[in-house]
Amino acid sequence: MVILIAEDDELILKTIEHKLLKEGHEVILSRNGKEAIETLKTENVDLAITDIMMPFASGIEILSAIQAMGKKIPVIILSSMGQEEVVLNAFDLGAADFIVKPFSPNELMLRIKRFSTK
């Protein structure tokens, strides 16, 4: 699978990248929301993992951009904000999954595997 990771926290970004590469996935990194949206315009991505709060464009804006492009890409939202309103808003906008930070990389891998069989 080709997986886009949009995350401005370098430690989290590199942790997820390392785990995904170890599992045999191809990884594209974006360190802000604008970069992620530009990447989505030019690359074929099977899955996107995005933080909610990022510079230049939020994870919600990335989710909206994917829908506006007409792409059917599952999106896993990461957030340190576990408020119910944020979670419900992400799902209303089409998020496939939501994980509250901090999280286990192994838990993330289990959730990703659900989408690799589709």
UniProtKB/TrEMBL annotation:
Domain Response regulatory as annotated: residue spans: 2-116
Record keywords: Phosphoprotein, Two-component regulatory system
Source superkingdom: Bacteria
Organism: Chryseobacterium gilvum
SUPFAM superfamilies: CheY-like
Protein name: Response regulator
Residue numbers carrying 4-aspartylphosphate: 51
